[in-house]
Amino acid sequence: MEQETGNGWFDGMHPDDRQRFLDIHSRALESRQPFDIEYRLLRADGQYRWVRNSARAQFDEAGEFVGYIGTCIEINAPARGTAVAPLTCREVQVLVLVADGKSTKEIASLLQISYKTADSHRSRIMEKLGIHETASLVRYAVRQGIVPV
Description:
The chain is of the alpha+beta class. It has 2 domains: 74 residues, PAS domain (Beta-Lactamase, 2-Layer Sandwich); 63 residues, Winged helix-like DNA-binding domain superfamily/Winged helix DNA-binding domain (Arc Repressor Mutant, subunit A, Orthogonal Bundle). The protein is built from 6 helices and 3 strands. The protein has a 3-stranded antiparallel β-sheet with strand order 1-2-3, with helices on one face. Helix 1 runs parallel beside helix 3 and helix 3 crosses helix 5.
C-alpha cells in the first residue's frame, strides 16, 4: 500500500500509456479543467487492467485551486483497445491534439517534433483509419472515447 501513495502508483502504469497520461494531465492541470483518461494499470497479481481515471478541479471559498478529486475504476478492455489498436502511441497523442483543435504547427511545437513529422503522423492516422478530413478525425476521436465530449 505504501508504494501506491503520492506518485508511486504511476510506476504501475503501463509504459505505453504514461506519456499520453502525462500530456492529458498536464493540459488539464494548466487550465484547471476536468480530465478523463483510460490507461492500463498493474494489479498486485501482475496483470494489467484498463482503468478510467476521472477527476475534477477543486477550489476553495476564495476561488483558489486546491487540487483534484477523482475516481479510478476498472473498465472492460475491448472498448478502449479497439479504438486505438491500429495507431501508435505517438499517433494517439497527435489525434488527441487534432481533436483538441490544434494546428499541425502547434502539434509539432507541443510534441517537440518538426512540422513535417507532425504532418506525416496526421496523414498516417487518416490513412490507417480511412478518414479524409479533420472533422472526421475529431468525430472518430470523440465517438471512440479517445477524447471527452
